[in-house]
Amino acid sequence: MAAAPGAAAAVAPASAASAAAVPASAVSASAAAPKRVLCKGTIYLTFDTGSQSQAELIADTLSRHKIKATFFLANEKTVRGDYSLDPSWSAYWKARVAEGHAIGSHTFDHAVYAKDGADGKIVVKPGFGDSAGKQISLTSKQYCEQIQRVDQRFVELTGKHLDPIWRAPAGRTSPRLLEMGQACGYAHVGWSPAGFSGDELSSSAYPNDVLLKKSLRDLRGGDIVLIHMGIWSRKDAWAPANLEPLISGLEQKDMCFATLREHPDYLSKFKK
């Protein structure tokens, strides 16, 4: 991130006498003071689990830029042949917790909303689990269990609870579904129109350079960005080509980054 323009440079003392007149503690305090940073806006990067092919790259890139982001977890099959909430991912998620990232639920079986059903139920199509690929009806309590089951597994893996936020798979919702999540104690998080990275689209129809230019052109302060941790169907993966230049390009525009814990729409939820 760029330092604030117009910051005055330190001036050397004109003489030994004048140098002695300045307390040593004041000099050391001034030298230790961090550079001021001018933020023209805040971008909220969010990452949904997927094939996890980009998991390490994402973690390394965020760490290098000292950025905290938000992750939404479902128990999805990964390129390792395991699942993203298996014990084999414990160290990965523990590290993200230690780094201060926010982490929410994406429903355990990646249950995509299909429609409102009868008797106050909703119809979903899980991507994983015993009902993978089938449409099933869930009560409010059963859907809450889909959200909370991620939290239960996360505690087993890391010893920590999720943040009280969730994201409906594919972003598909209805007023009834949102009420179910709210009744379960979780605030729903979508993404901004400009925040759709396009990483789940066909790479031949939507090349990485086109998607990057669009993001850098359209993103504004306050936007929530959706990125996946690997998409099985995309031939030319988005993250290796675009994540670093996206962050660097936004930093050059004096944008800062934060987790959804700092987003004005969710502050009250985290203060509870």
UniProtKB/TrEMBL annotation:
Example of a GO biological process term: carbohydrate metabolic process
GO MF annotations in UniProt: hydrolase activity, acting on carbon-nitrogen (but not peptide) bonds
Descriptive protein name: Polysaccharide deacetylase family protein
Pfam families: Polysacc_deac_1
Residue ranges the record marks as coiled coil: none
Keyword Repeat (UniProt): no
Domain NodB homology: from-to ranges: 41-258
PANTHER family from the UniProt entry: GLYCOSYL TRANSFERASE-RELATED
Signal peptide coordinates: 1-19
Keywords, alphabetical: Signal
Annotated InterPro entries: Glyco_hydro/deAcase_b/a-brl, NODB_dom, Polysacc_deacetylase_ArnD
Keyword Signal: yes
Domain of life: Bacteria
Species the sequence originates in: Duganella rivi
